[in-house]
Amino acid sequence: MSLQKCTVIYDGQALVGPADIPLIDFLDACNKTLPHVCYHPALEPLQTCDVCWVEQAGKLVRGCTLRSHEGLEINSANPHASAAREEGMDRLLAKHELYCTVCEHNTGDCTLHNTMVDMHLPIQRYAWQRKPYVKDESNPFYTYDPDQCILCGRCVEACQNVEVNETLSIDYTQQHPRVLWDGGTRIAGSSCVSCGHCVTVCPCNALLEKTMQPDAGPFTSMPQSLKRPLIDVVKALENTIGAEIVSGVSVIDTQLRQQEIKRTKTVCTYCGVGCSFEMWTRDRHLLKVQPVTDAPANGISTCVKGKFAWDFINSPQRLTTPLIRENDRFRPASWEEALDLVAKRLLAIRDETGPDSIGFIGSSKGSNEEAYLTQKIARLIIGTNSVDNSSRYCQNPATEGLFRTVGYGGDAGTIADLAQAELVVIVGSNTAENHPVIASRLKAAKKQRGQQWLVVDPRRHEMAERADQHLRIHPGTDLVWASAMSRYMFDHGYADEAFLTQRVNNVEAYRRSLEPFTLDYAAQITGIQEADLRAAAERIGRAGSVCIMWAMGITQHSHGADTSTALSNLLLVTGNYGRPGTGGYPMRGHNNVQGASDFGCLKNFYPGYESVSDPQVRDKWARAWGVDPQRLSLEIGEDNFMMVKLASSDQLRAMYVIGEETAFSDADTTNVHQGFSELDFLVVQDLFLSRTAQFADVVLPGCPSVEKEGSFVNTERRIQRFYPVMPPLGDSRPDWLILTQLAARMGFDWGYTHPGQIMAEVAGIAGSFAGVSYERLEGWKSQLWPVKADGSSTPLLYTDQFKSADGRATLYPVSWQPPAEEADADYDLLLNNGRMLEHFQSTNQSGRGGRTTSLSPEWYVEISPELAAGRNLNTGDWVRLSSRRGALEIPVLVTDRVQGKVLFISIHQGKEGINQLTGEHHDPAVNTPAYKEIAIRLDALDRTPHPNPLPEHNFRHGKRTPISRVPVEEKWRRDDYREPPEHEPHPEKF
Fold first, then answer.
1. Are 26 and 18 spatial neighbours (Cβ–Cβ below 8 Å)?
2. Are the C-beta atoms of residues 618 and 632 closer than 8 Å to each other?
3. What residue segments make up the domains of the chain, in order of their start?
4. pLDDT tens digits for 929-962?
5. What confidence tens digit (pLDDT) does each residue in 510-548 have?
6. CA spacing 20 to 30 A to 69: which of 87, 597, 742, 883?
7. Topology of the domain comprising 829-950
């Protein structure tokens, strides 16, 4: 909100408030209400509802178009303006049947109802007429009822210019206008990605969550055979007693519902964007997820999972009591028995075979406080640094590249910096499906402000389709083009020499290391035409501000750390660090994979990335924890990858795994399962009896984020607090409480009774979190680390200095090394792999209830048209994919999203999953498995084709219909349109 003040004269009264904000918001800040329906603070003025008319300078204007400024004089009480507003509302009601007391949406969140009540309309002037359309229930998550649609266009604006999926439109020239999906009348099969933006902004019940239907209120679940006659009676009654009496009943109903409905702020449990929103619940029933404009990372934006994929919280498959394995079967146990057994066995193994014979895997889905307790138990009680989290499988190479060059293991800036960059280079990141809300911010920047995109990826996903330039690269060769770009910058005068001189070390040595990386050489290695490489280099060199985003398409290769280093080097060479709209942004995959690392679930770092091998650091943590420094190890521990390998060789005897599906997610499934089988003792703490839990000796039922309190760190280093939406299911317990109770049984009664106490402890020790507190994270507030002791955040890193001893960055030479596994005569194809929008990881959460799964229930492999033609394959044909480790049988989907001999498969489905094909080749710097390097052989199978591997109702079949804005001018141009306050002959059309 603006810090400048101004005075606005409103109905003769001088009002002082923020300058240059929408008039409606200005009046709201001054406790004045201007009636409105189509206006929404997160959207551009739509001018469609005609309910906010005011008089300015003797003319009627729509109030939503005005912004506050000094000297603005407005008259709303003028009879002409009042009549215009009433006419506008009358037209809306002609398109919407008011039956509020039996409407699921009468929960206080219906803008149409609330505005109608505030305006005290005596009666509905125009008779409501049913439209010639049926209610669309084809989407698994929400419905569209044309009979309730007031044609305000909020949903269209949200879809076109906030989400920028560009699915929805309204054709005001139709005989009976309605909202359209890809120009058609059915949601299923359109390009709708079920992000829920349209439902969030709908001002009535035209678009409504299915979880709100039919039991959102005390009278809403009555059968239609009773509801319809009741509505007809009430509508007839309105004509005799007036609308206000009837609406008064609905206001009472609203108040009764609000007493039952609980609204709780939480943070999404899926990807690393860090979306926050309210959850509306009645007891354990989740009515809806409601984003708010105050949410710092996402505003009103959500994706299909954050908005709708919460069926798992009440899944009958949830673990609700501890389990102990006896005679190779699980039996229920009390918490006392289970925790006593875990404490006894872990201490015994520590004493018998040493602290380093036990390994801990913390959860990238658990809270920061839980990550902290995990590493505290490992280091303080057991005495080992063998603690890790799932960042080992995805983002450790990116972190290593940043450590080498600029010093902090996190994004250089915020989502806002990505949105304001002149050029965004997107490398190995299917952002629209993996981080959809960030993709929406970028799509909006591109559509509305002309932001440029350079996408480097073997696959033509949505970001590539929308890019200014897409470079289809041979997988695993990104280091070469990135280094060639750096050389080009030096050779063609695009290097920021002043920045390099003032702020960067090792410039000359690095420049010499670039000698092999000519554009010609890069073209040979990457498969990209030299002219295209030159065009990309010019694009980067000429851009005033550049951000580079990368994800698992870079990090899950055998030299992902080196490639990440090369990308950061390129940013340094061009001076693209430390300024708004610049920097490196490795996208974090899980909701708290950043926080799990930040708060110490790493083999070599205490919380705040303080080295375990530094004696001074060890002494500091020992003093804080009240123990002798000798109790804490100076030896770097083992990571996830090595723990599993050591389990197979008897060097690791026990493991404690929290919220990670390691048996599904780790590379080379056969060896992982063997390692787990060889352990003397395995504890798994999770929500479900996962594939990993099936190997356990003790299973402890934890809680999802909605059943506990804590904090997460998103991909932009933003710390956010979440609150308990509902109590733990059954006898499950918050994970921080389980760990606290376990520690007490192991001789360390820390006495935590609230996660805020744990955060306070961390803030008192780790410098990066010095000013973090639950008070400063209250509600929608957030902090971005490093946080100074006074509580001030650091949204943009490196503005003054880099994280190094001398405050300077380092250009870090890297050399080209080919992928550890390439195609050859026996295995002649490459199998790329990654995520899909509607699923998440092993689908342990997103797959419950069947709604998200229904979008794409089957596993398939994408093959290129040229490969399909060469092998005589069609969509649906079955093939066997064989690697050097294993094989799987799967139908094919022929698509130009992939090209040549590079295939694509999702990581989500399948009984054993993709990791029956992956190997143990890995990045030697950080031990991240090279998941993306799978050489395969494809053999056609004589088997009845699958009729539809990707169902026709899936959004990938849709054809978007982009428009710049809601075409309200089409309505105004119609011969039968009359501007209020003149009465309208056909109000149902407007």
1. yes
2. yes
3. 1-82, 323-394+592-767, 395-586, 829-950
4. 999 999 999 999 999 999 999 999 999 999 999 9
5. 999 999 999 999 999 999 999 999 999 999 999 999 999
6. 87
7. Barwin-like endoglucanases (2.40.40)
